Amino acid sequence: MEYSSILEQAQHYVRTFFDTHVSDKLYYHNRKHTERVVESAVQIAQHYQLNDAEFFIVKVAAWFHDIGYLSGEGPGHEERGARMAESFLEGTGIDRGIIDSIRKCILATQLPQRATTLVEQIVCDADLYHLGTDDFPDRNKLMRKEAEAVYHKKISKDEWRRGTIRFLESHHYYTDYCRLLLNEKQKENLDRLKEKEGDGELVNGVMQSVRAGFHEEGKGGTHNNPLEGLLRKHGVTDDEEEVVEEKPETAREKKKNKKKDPGRGIDTVFRITSNNNQKLSSQADSKAHILIQVNAIIISVLLSLLLRKIEDHTNLAIPATLLLFVNLITIIFSILATRPHIPPGTFSKADLDDKKVNLLFFGNFYRMSLEEYAGGMLIMMDDKDFLYGSLIRDVYYQGIALGKKYLWLRWSYNVFMYGLIASVMAFLIAALFFPTK
User: Fold this and answer.
1) Cβ atoms 401, 341 nearer than 8 A
2) What's the whole-model pTM score?
3) Among 153, 148, 121, 145, residue whose Cα is nearest residue 57
4) Of 3, 125, 251, 310, which is most buried, counting CB atoms within 10 Å of its CB?
5) What is the pLDDT of residue 124?
């Protein structure tokens, strides 16, 4: 199935629909938001190396997931969007199972999200990807503005903030990729809102005291300004609106100072990279095991059936021998792809002093005592350059090992593919041109 042309048609259809059904109320759920969700969905899907059909499902669902806002009210927009996607795809030759999967992906984005399959989880995480990014404050403001426009109701900052806090506390990303990449930032966004909420409660308490004090002082005629005095007493200045905004600004400045330290981002990069390498290694091992099993079965069949009767079918001796060697070489290469390499398992004090040993890989310390290893780890943790250097070496050598593993695996597949073709051709030639007499 050629998905690319249909995907381009779907993309053009959704963009045109947004452009021709412009709503002055949709400050958030507009074409820009949809395009961002598509970008996030592609990013997550590429991480999981989805096949063509799954990638098509994710991307089409991302394009159609909010189009229902343009044909009705907010409630039920997922169902309308799913129907529009279904109507668009019918007649394109797309398998019914894929259309149903796209429909389920769109419906899964309905809050509270309920995703079961990987493609549904990817679309749901892409839809709320911004919760764990620096764009969250601006996007949240647009959501509030849209809600006020749609429901024709003024929503106070405190009311909206409390609702957002409850939503963030209940939200969890489905995919491990988004959890590793976005959880920390989502928590920062939540903590910032809670700080504002706490500051708002302080200000409300102060202002109640102010009003009570002003009321009591007002009974006595002339008085010093009690409002100003009570505000100073609580460390608050100017009017209530300014107070509410002042505290969060100070908190944001503190956060900005933290952002200057890239440590958290670096740690996230290392976690994601190491996780990717482990997944690729597991995939390579799985593929190698499949090759070993398949070729072992073929060898057992050859030895038990064909070679026993080779005297009666001498014309098949060469093809059978060829196939046997192909299976054997394929198994050897597959075993080489999965065979582990174990280093000596020790390190010296000179290695620690020169910061050359990677204490994060078991192969460098499994023969050392606990005291020696713990001492080396303490030295590494006290030295930031040594620590990050070890992480870099760990990722690098993971890549080297993966490269060798996939090279042997490629040779295995090549030998099996071309050898199988040659063996089948040899069997045909032997059967057609050199029949048994």
Assistant:
1) yes
2) 0.53
3) 121
4) 125
5) 92
Strand, helix or coil at 90?
Answer: coil
What's the maximum distance between 2 C-alpha atoms anywhere in the chain?
Answer: 130
175-201 pLDDT, tens digit per residue, is: 888 888 888 888 888 888 888 776 555
User: 22 vs 333, which has greater pLDDT?
Assistant: 333
Q: Could you tell me the CA-to-CA distances from 18 to 23, 63, 316, 409 in Å, in that order?
A: 9, 11, 66, 47
Query: Which CATH class name applies to 3-194?
Result: mainly alpha
Helices (H), 339-383: 349-353, 370-382
What is the rounded distance in angstroms from the CA atom of residue 68 to the CA atom of residue 241? 37
Paired tokens of 39: 């970008």
User: Computed from CA positions of residues 155, 161, 162, 166, in that sequence, does the dihedral angle turn out positive or negative?
Assistant: positive
Number of neighbours of residue 322 by Cβ within 10 angstroms: 17
pLDDT tens-digit series, residues 60-103:
999 988 888 877 776 778 888 888 888 888 877 788 888 889 98
Dihedral Cα 228, 233, 234, 239, nearest 10 deg: 10
**One-letter-per-residue 3-state SS of 177-201:** HHHHHHHHHHHHHHHHHHHHHHHHH
Q: Residue 347: exposed, middle, or buried by beta-carbon count in 10 A (0-12, 13-18, 19+)?
A: buried
Return d(Cα 314, Cα 308) in angstroms, integer. Answer: 11
Can you list the alpha helix ranges (DSSP code H) found in 171-316?
A: 176-218, 226-233, 240-259, 263-301
Are residues 53 and 3 in contact, defined by beta-carbon separation less than 8 angstroms? yes
Give φ, ψ of 66 to 5 degrees.
Answer: -120, 10
Question: In the block, which residue shows the tokens 């002339």?
Answer: 222
403 C-beta neighbours (distance < 10 Å), count: 10
Could you tell me how many helices (H) and strands (E) the chain has, helices first? 16, 0
Among the listed residues 18, 11, 16, the one whose alpha carbon sits nearest the alpha carbon of residue 38: 11
CA distance 393 to 163: 45
CA pair distance 121, 220, nearest whole angstrom: 66
Signed CA dihedral, 394, 400, 404, 406: sign only: positive
Note whether 31 and 41 are within 8 A (CB): no
Residues in the chain: 437
Work out the angle at residue 123's Cα, subtended by the Cα atoms of residues 119 and 124, and round it to the nearest 5 degrees: 115
